[in-house]
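User: Can you model how adenosine monophosphate sits in this protein?
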Amino acid sequence: MNIMVVGGGGREHAIIKSLKKNSEITKIYALPGNGGMKDDCECVAIGAKDIDAIAAFAKENKIDFAVVAPDDPLVLGCVDKLKELGIPCFGPEKKAAIIEGSKVFSKNLMKKYGIPTAQYEVFDNAKDALSYLETAPIPTVIKADGLALGKGVIIAMTRDEAKKAVVSMMEDKVFGDSGNNIVIEEFLEGPEVSVLSFTDGKCVVPMISSMDHKRAKDNDEGLNTGGMGTIAPNPYYTKEIADECMEKIFLPTINAMNSEGRTFSGCLYFGLMLTKNGPKVIEYNCRFGDPETQVVLPLLESDLFTVMKAVAEGKLSETEVKFSNGAACCVVMASNGYPEKYETGFEITFPEKLEENEEIYVAGAKLCDGKVVTSGGRVLGAVSKGACLNCAIKGAYALCDKISFQNAYKRNDIGKKALAVYNKEV
Ligand code: AMP
Ligand code: GLY
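Assistant: Here's the modeled complex, given as structure tokens:
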């Protein structure tokens, strides 16, 4: 069976390594993949946004099943195009991917269907937004409507910062057309939890919860990044909270999308904040999170391909989705300077052999004269599983010590906050 995975980062590497466990799969292509995946799949130099080229490749290479992982191709309609060619796909169609593609859409959806989220106002011009900010409660949160490489959210601690954010998005167009409309919303406080879920539009099966570490530096300081590390499960996400989320957020979201004629099939990611007034949705993503996937999939005991196929066929309720009782930690090794300026092109040295509980998922690397060299900000995720969170964290850092490249940078406190939660409870 020929499988195609669209995308090229650490998340896709984790998906590919999990898919490989299924013996029906004989060949996996990654479009475009990256040089660090060379032992796991065949990388094809087609960009994840080049929908026509992706479709042509799929047809020519007799692809039996496609997994479209990143937000851009999903929002652009990659799944619709592949389905037109008769290729079964894991991932939402364009009309459902809008749940991530437009914050105005998702906020209005939550308001219409009573799904808990931060209060908000939508603006289509800077003048009204600026005048609203004269009296809005501060801190406040400014969000560009469209995709903005994960950078379209500004937490403004002062009125002045808020106004500057509006001007940069709506007048200076720093995120291009994504800033034509903006959402200004209530600042929420509380622990954040990422819950990825499988859904075929009929039922929704949450995966093990996780915690991202978005800031570049230890103790959550420095700039926001794509994610510097993750742990799973998230200790704040208790059984009671999970039940409440299922009743008030997960099922209502699936039903709301059905009622809007936008049935969601694929992985729906709930970015939640556990506030004093209960769990609220911070954001939806129409895809697996990165680097959440890197800790969630290693803990999946069921076969990923079987689950993905069941989702695509609308038979998720007939399939078992089981996670192990253990924990996992992913420490991202980045190029020093990320998310701003950094140098690349340095050879990466990997350990000769990985232990059974270890994984390395490569995100930013390319092949150069047969060597794997750094090519991006986030270079790789060092992942370890363990019976407990502490063992997983120790394992991930021990694995980092066995990997080297010039100018490597990592946070040293991934999982520290989560461990403190457990320790307080004991
Ligand atoms: P996003 O790019 O949508 O994931 O948002 C980036 C980060 O901004 C989130 O992970 C939160 O930490 C923070 N954030 C987004 N919306 C809010 C909000 N309403 N209140 C407080 N923090 C927020
Ligand atoms: N880790 C957050 C995201 O994938 O958007």
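A couple of observations from the model: Residues 150, 212, 227, 285, 289-290, 292 surround glycine (ligand 2) (CB under 6 Å). The mean pLDDT is 96.
User: Helpful, thanks.
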